[in-house]
Design brief:
This protein is α/β, with parallel strands linked by helices. It folds into 2 domains: about 5-100 and about 185-255, HAD superfamily/HAD-like (Rossmann fold), CATH 3.40.50; about 105-180, Alpha-Beta Plaits. Helix content is about 35%, strand content about 25%. A 9-stranded mixed β-sheet has the order 1-13-12-11-2-3-4-5-6, with helices on both faces. It has a 4-stranded antiparallel β-sheet with strand order 7-8-10-9, covered by helices on one side. Helix 2 packs parallel to helix 9 and helix 7 (about 185-200) packs across helix 8 (about 215-220). The longest helix has 15 residues, at about 110-125. It is globular, with a radius of gyration of 18 Å. The protein starts with a strand and ends with a helix.
């Protein structure tokens, strides 16, 4: 049963105190920063950035920010050193001596670019649609489109992806379609890869995210502290918080409790 995180802090604290180290995973949009109409304007508030800076000073915590954004875009918006950055839903990872790009996704960059250009042409006439080429994946944002245009947007995206054969799959998020290379890699696989490379016994994973893609990570962390941000009754997470403001409160609390 999904529990309120902020009402369950004593049981989370007991797990923190018994762990040798904490592997903290945080989504960006909708988790560290509020969702905004134009994704290019999303910003990390100074108080949240300061909370991250304090967390990375803790020897017992290794922090990863994992997002659908390209890893360069993610780093520019956060700019905190000693953090692991994982972009494009885990397809790319760098930081703290780690570096990884999923090979199959990397090999399909050219195919994805051509598919993206095709979609830009097909959707150019619909106001409020943003097609974002992120190198390894492509996002089609329709948050600013009128509701009546959404079926036409979805039909164009689905038809284009289907015509590309079996190389790509279509995911959905909060008013966004995600074109992702069809591989066995996702946020859950990225989390497992990072955990293996940390090489720490007794490491407690804590993961907070608001997106459908975060469910892959929740699923591979059945014994972790998994936190769904926002209203979503059907989730693999164990805990929930209403939004980014409560995530910030949790980070401040976590910094006070970690050794």
């Amino acid at each position: 049963m999904l529990k309120s995180l902020l009402q369950s802090l004593p049981e989370v604290d007991a797990r923190i105190q018994s762990a040798n180290r904490i592997a903290l995973f945080l989504d960006f949009d909708g988790t560290l920063a509020p969702i905004v109409a134009d994704p290019s304007t999303a910003r990390l508030s100074e108080v949240v950035r300061e909370a991250l800076l304090r967390l990375v000073e803790r020897e017992s915590i290794v922090t990863t920010v994992i997002s659908g954004r390209a890893v360069e875009d993610l780093y520019v918006r956060i700019r905190v050193d000693n953090v692991i950055y994982s972009g494009n839903h885990g397809l790319e990872i760098f930081g703290r001596g780690l570096r990884f790009v999923e090979p199959a996704a990397d090999a399909r960059r050219g195919h994805l670019r051509r598919l993206t250009e095709l979609l830009m042409g097909r959707l150019r006439h619909i106001p409020g649609v943003l097609v974002e080429d992120k190198g390894l994946t492509t996002s089609i944002h329709f948050r600013q489109a009128v509701e009546g245009d959404v079926p036409a947007i979805e039909q164009a995206v689905r038809a284009s992806v289907a015509a590309s054969g079996s190389w790509f799959r279509l995911g959905t998020g909060r008013e966004v379609f995600e074109i992702v290379p069809r591989t066995d890699w996702h946020k859950g696989a990225a989390v497992k890869w990072i955990m293996r490379n940390l090489r720490e016994d007794g490491c407690l994973p804590i993961y907070a995210g608001d997106d459908n893609s975060d469910e892959d990570a929740f699923a591979v962390l059945p014994d972790g502290v998994t936190i769904r941000v926002g209203g979503q009754p059907a989730t693999c997470a164990h805990y929930s918080v209403p939004g980014p403001a409560e995530v910030y409160r949790f980070l401040v609390w976590l910094e006070s409790r970690a050794a």
